[in-house]
Specification:
By secondary structure, the chain is α+β, with helices and mostly antiparallel strands. It is built from five helices and six strands.
Length: about 260
């Protein structure tokens, strides 16, 4: 058996290192514990400082609520309407609307003064044209009946009315049925000189026409008498065949003179 041996100095060095290691191990644990304690204290100090800085905030209710002002346009005032309708009363028999008074001038004053005279002239002319129309119709009295016009020395009923009205600016077709489509209907009680009266003779549509001559008389080209003549509107033959009367407007004022 071979014995190994170590030199004494090496043995001492090994023992010294082992002792130092055992001595330093407890000190490392103590240092680690101290470090943990310092960290915990530091964290506690920081939290305390934050709490001191952040004091609790409490909401305070204002003493008076704030007023909100919104700008608005003034509302239009409604007109005062009376509950009682006074129109028609004795004091206000009709509604009066005040019109602006135009500035006076010579032209308007002159027209105002001449207005009544102009109205009188118009009514006078209307009456005059009726008289002139009847006078023109009388010129055909005795003209033989026949299709044509007075230039051919004969005429039928619609040709007669056509030629008479032509003198006063009214152009009529040469047919009683077509003439019946013109003008405005009038009642027998409202007949005026110059109105056209339509009758049915050989068919249901208007086939005969005459001119009212006033005082219950008509002037026409009679087929039965074969000439232009007067007849009564109450004559049995015409009274039974009467359809309606028409009134025409005059376009030409030349015949009113």
């Amino acid at each position: 058996m071979v014995k190994t041996w170590m030199p004494i100095p090496l043995i001492l060095l090994t023992l010294s290192a082992h002792a130092e290691t055992q001595r330093r191990e407890p000190s490392l644990f103590l240092e680690y514990e101290r470090e943990l304690k310092r960290s915990a204290e530091t964290q506690k100090i920081d939290e305390t400082a934050f709490k001191k800085l952040m004091a609790p905030i409490t909401a305070v209710k204002p003493l008076t609520p704030p007023k909100i002002i919104i700008a608005t346009e003034p509302l239009p005032q409604k007109p005062v309407v009376s509950d009682k309708d006074t129109i028609g009363a004795d004091s206000t028999p009709f509604l009066v609307i005040n019109k602006p008074t135009p500035a006076p001038n010579l032209c308007s004053d002159q027209k105002t003064a001449e207005a009544p005279a102009e109205r009188k002239t118009i009514f006078k002319n209307i009456k005059s044209v009726k008289e002139n129309l009847l006078a023109k119709a009388k010129e055909f009295l005795g003209t033989p009946y026949g299709f044509g016009d007075k230039d051919d020395s004969r005429t039928d009923c619609s040709g007669f009315t056509q030629q008479v009205y032509r003198q006063f600016g009214v152009s009529l077709p040469h047919s009683a049925a077509e003439q019946a489509q013109l003008g405005e209907k009038v009642e027998l009680g409202d007949l005026q000189v110059g109105d056209l009266l339509f009758y049915r003779t050989y068919k249901s549509d208007p086939s005969h026409v005459a001119i009212y001559a006033g005082e219950g008389q008509i002037i026409h080209a009679s087929y039965n008498s074969r000439k232009v003549q007067f007849d009564s509107i109450d004559k049995g033959y015409y009274k039974q065949r009467f359809l309606y009367a028409k009134r025409l407007a005059f376009n030409d004022t030349a015949g009113m003179e």
